[in-house]
Design a protein that fits this description.
heterodimer, A: alpha+beta, 2 domains, four-stranded antiparallel β-sheet, 8 strands, B: alpha+beta, six-stranded antiparallel β-sheet, five-stranded antiparallel β-sheet, 7 helices, 27 strands, elongated
């Protein structure tokens, strides 16, 4: 009887062990999702650059250049700085802040509040901005590539033949790279 | 005894395996989970030859511009390209090897991503090339979309046609002009409390159009609301706002799609070799077999998610070389259409062309689906109401309906007009020193009428007009409604309504 029980115990122990392996096998043999493939590839690959910052650790420079320009013909609008060669720059507003944090200038001449969030790919930036200069005020959100510009324009209240043009730009501060 | 031992072992084994399986299920069981497929960055799909037809594989170097892969890649291996001349690549560029992502990448093929110049470069065969092209296409579709909205409000003579050219040449007064990049779902505001334009846009899937809600407010001058869909690249010139006398208010709206570099995106739609316009269905017999051709952009989005089976463009005749095509049989099966083994259903996402071949009942069922899809796009309603004072009907004419002839023959005086631009089911409000109006438009199922509900509280040249009314208005046919009698002049105040519609492709 004792011999029988010992034999059964040993056999059971082997069976449990085999099933445990079977469990691992089941987990590993499941269809691998697309993302998991990417993660696996990343983990098995030698890390070349170990000193990469996270997006939130990057300082960003958000700049709004404000111009007083003659209005373009009906149906056209400002798309490049080339068109602003004859325009007069009336303000250059800059906020330097960590990604994801609010920054604000608020003095007698102007208001410039921004929040810029750097994306995981370090290329795209979500920007929310509020700008007020003279009788012009704008509040908007956009997503743009780091280093590129977004154009905004609105006519001046006293003279609709003149436009305020705002050129928004976001870049790393001091060219600090990822 | 032996039997009992074996039975005990067997039962134990079954119990243990079941427990392992149950644990395995629990690991992935999330009762509160919501599919996060849409949140995941796109990954490459395997491309196969359609119905086993194989072409001779031949590698070539291809390059595709791609701003981002929408996921971190800094831990991937860098490619030492110093000795190799890769297109769009300088010696200092950071190039990553993403070959492992592509199921079709085998043998001597490779796929790299140049993170500096933003190009995906591959040494690819037909299948890998199809997989790369389709992957790039899906990534680009998932990149954030910026829409640039330009809005200009002017007052012009009421006889000036609603075109930019005519307005440019005419005497016009610009009241407000604005242009800016909008983020979907976020409100933008331009101006201050007493003088502003607020705009909010919701970009539809596919980014061909956006629902826009605009509110222009100039204290003591005017307030104009617009709630409707605008199509990307299609400029709208519409009459809106309350204007007295012989002028009219005009809003010029333009929606452009910009990439993340701030440049205008020109939608690449390759034309199939068959002549067919959007939403059109054509049936043709080719070589003794009946085919159905149906062109509908973003059919994959419209019919709902389903695993897209990418196939190599094996030069099936109707598709252009750059077409990205899918075996659509399973998608149609999910719509309840039983496809046989020999039946064919292929969809090209670049041209939006679906090609189906099967027996008559299959083609009939697909054609039925096309009718359901064709009514699901939006309608923009443009309505103008002119207010006239005319000689009243004589006693004998009381009860007669008003029409153009009767208005013109009764010394009409135009008091003012109001323009509206809104989507079906929407409501807008305008105000000015001449008063205020609210209009709600409900689309009729027949597609020939709209049901319009007005609340008028106007004062044109000392003519007070106050009325609440509900009326059915046929498209493109003026409707005249007698509102009231001027107590001073004893003449009738007539409202003329003219409504037109425009389809908006979503």
């Amino acid at each position: 009887m004792k011999y029988l029980l010992e034999t059964v115990t040993v056999i059971l122990a082997f069976t449990v062990g085999a099933c445990g392996d079977k469990k691992e096998e089941i987990l590993q043999s499941e269809p691998v999702s697309e993302n998991r493939v990417a993660e696996q590839s990343a983990e098995t690959i030698v890390i070349i650059n170990d000193t990469v910052k996270r997006p939130a650790e990057n300082k960003l420079r958000v700049t709004a250049s404000v111009y007083d320009a003659a209005a373009l013909p009906l149906g056209e609008n400002f798309k490049s700085t080339e068109q602003l060669k004859k325009a007069r720059k009336i303000a250059e507003l800059t906020n330097i802040t960590l990604s994801g944090q609010l920054a604000k200038i608020d003095d007698q001449c102007c208001v410039f509040a921004t929040e810029a969030l750097l994306g995981e790919d370090f290329k795209l930036v979500d920007v929310a901005a509020e700008i007020a200069v003279r009788d012009m005020s704008m509040k908007f959100s956009t997503t743009l590539r780091r280093g590129s510009s977004a154009f905004y324009e609105m006519n001046q209240s006293e003279d609709t033949s003149r436009m305020y043009v705002v050129v928004l730009n976001v870049e790393f501060e001091n060219n600090e790279s990822k | 005894m032996k039997f009992y031992v074996l039975s005990l072992l067997f039962v134990s084994s079954v119990l243990i395996v079941n427990q392992a399986q149950a644990q395995e299920e629990n690991i992935h069981d999330d009762p509160f989970g919501v599919s996060d497929e849409y949140l995941k960055p796109p990954m490459p799909r395997e491309a196969k030859y359609f119905k086993g037809k194989v072409r001779k594989e031949k590698n070539e170097i291809i390059a595709r511009s791609l701003l981002s892969l929408l996921q971190p890649i800094n831990k991937l291996p860098l490619v030492d390209h110093a000795q190799t001349q890769l297109p769009h690549t300088k010696s200092t560029d950071r190039v990553y090897n993403i070959s492992a992502w592509f199921p079709n990448c085998t043998d001597e093929q490779w796929v790299y991503y140049n993170d500096t110049s933003n190009y995906l470069i591959a040494n690819a065969s037909h299948r890998l090339k199809a997989s790369v092209s389709e992957y790039v296409y899906r990534v680009i579709k998932k990149l954030p979309v910026n829409l640039k909205l330009t809005a200009t409000y002017l007052v012009v003579d009421r006889n000036i046609p609603l075109t930019i050219e005519a307005i440019k040449k005419s005497q016009h007064k610009k009241v407000m002009s604005f242009s800016g990049v909008l983020k979907s779902g976020e409100k933008a505001m331009f101006g201050k409390v007493e003088r502003y334009l607020s705009a909010e846009g919701l970009i539809y899937p596919g980014a061909h159009s956006a629902y826009c809600s605009l509110n222009l407010y100039l204290a003591d001058e005017l307030e104009v609301e617009i709630n409707t869909s605008l199509q990307v690249g299609l400029r709208e010139v519409v009459q809106v706002g309350i204007i007295k006398g012989n002028e009219k208010g005009v809003m010029i709206l333009n929606l452009e799609r910009l990439d993340m570099n701030g440049r205008k995106v020109r939608e690449k739609r390759v034309n199939p070799q068959i002549e067919i316009s959007n939403y059109q269905v054509k049936r043709e017999v080719i070589s003794g077999r009946e085919y159905l051709f149906w062109r509908v952009p973003d059919l994959i989005t419209l019919l709902g998610p389903c695993e897209e089976r990418l196939v190599v463009n094996s030069n099936l005749g109707v598709f252009a070389k750059e077409a990205i095509i899918y075996d659509f049989s399973e998608n149609l099966e999910l719509q309840g259409i039983r496809m046989r083994k020999d039946d064919l259903a292929i969809y090209d996402s670049m041209s939006g062309l679906l090609v189906v071949s099967g027996n008559t009942s299959v083609l009939d069922m697909v054609e039925e689906i096309s009718y359901e899809i064709s009514v699901s796009y939006g309608l923009n309603i443009s309505t103008v109401t002119n207010f006239y004072e005319v000689d009243a009907h004589s006693k004998a004419e009381v009860g007669n309906e008003w029409d153009v002839v009767s208005i013109l023959s009764r010394n009409p005086e135009l008091l003012g007009n109001v323009g509206y631009f809104l989507g079906g089911g929407e409501k807008v409000r305008h105000s000015s020193p001449q008063g205020s109006v609210i209009l709600e438009v409900i689309l009729d199922e027949s597609g020939r009428f709209t049901n319009q509900v007005y609340q008028l509280d106007l004062n044109f040249l000392n003519h007070k007009i106050k009325s609440k009314l509900k009326t059915d208005v046929e498209y493109n046919r003026p409707k005249f409604i007698e509102l009231q009698t001027n107590p001073v002049t004893r003449r009738s105040i007539i409202m003329m309504i003219l409504t037109t519609k425009k389809r908006i492709f979503r």
